[in-house]
Write a structure and sequence with these properties.
- The chain is mainly alpha-helical.
- The protein has one domain (about 5-105).
- It is about 65% helix and about 10% strand.
- The protein is built from 4 helices and 2 strands, in the order E-H-H-E-H-H.
- It has a two-stranded antiparallel sheet.
- Helix 1 packs antiparallel against helix 2.
- It starts with 5 loop residues before the first strand and ends with a helix.
Length: about 110
């Protein structure tokens, strides 16, 4: 009997996915940094309302942390091995959803 869901992935498949997620988070980081510059340039951060820059900075930091995590993970995979991943593992590496479809169907 097998308990739970466990999927086997080659290290090369996981590395490709991790690098794609790393690039995604880098793009989002750059996007939010651009938004911060626009808000500051418009003066909206001094308009007396809730400061939108603070929320944007949190998003930048979140994407930066995910980007760095995926970079470390990709660098430390053992080449030519098979990794058995659980549902929790898949969630941590952001495999479910659209990225899975792109990875396996595209």
């Amino acid at each position: 009997m097998i308990e739970g869901i466990h999927l086997d992935f080659k290290s090369s498949e996981i590395k490709k996915h991790l690098l794609e997620r790393m690039r995604h988070h880098k793009e989002r980081e750059v996007f939010y940094l651009t938004q911060i510059r626009r808000v500051r340039k418009s003066g909206a951060d001094r308009a007396g309302y809730i400061n939108p820059v603070s929320a944007l900075e949190k998003k930048v930091e979140s994407h930066r942390e995910r980007r760095d995590l995926f970079a470390v993970m990709a660098q430390h995979l053992i080449p030519n091995e098979v990794y058995r991943l659980t549902e929790t593992d898949l969630g941590h590496i952001e495999l479910p959803g659209r990225s899975y479809n792109r990875w396996h169907l595209g």
